[in-house]
Amino acid sequence: MNASDLQKRVEQIRRDSEKVVQGAEPDFRQRLKEATQRQLSRHQRSRIEANVAASDESFAAKLSKATKALAARRPETCKQHYERAEKERARYRKLTRRPHTKSE
Asked: N or C end of the chain, less CB within 10 A?
């Protein structure tokens, strides 16, 4: 196949794709577009939102503020984290050395 044949096929595909399918709902394309955008926005939302417009604060301060705002919105998560950390801490006992024997 040469370039002109490929160009003809591309044009044919474009013409065929522009045709309206009989029996299709008139607003199906719009509904599909909205559903896709909803799915994408659900996955693209970030957990931490920092305001980049204010340039007088350092990045660390912005991140700290955003983290505190996130924690304020979900206090049960902080509580669960604290409880899990305490449980893990209690799981491991502090190592103690055995006392030396007379031969050592």
From this structure: C
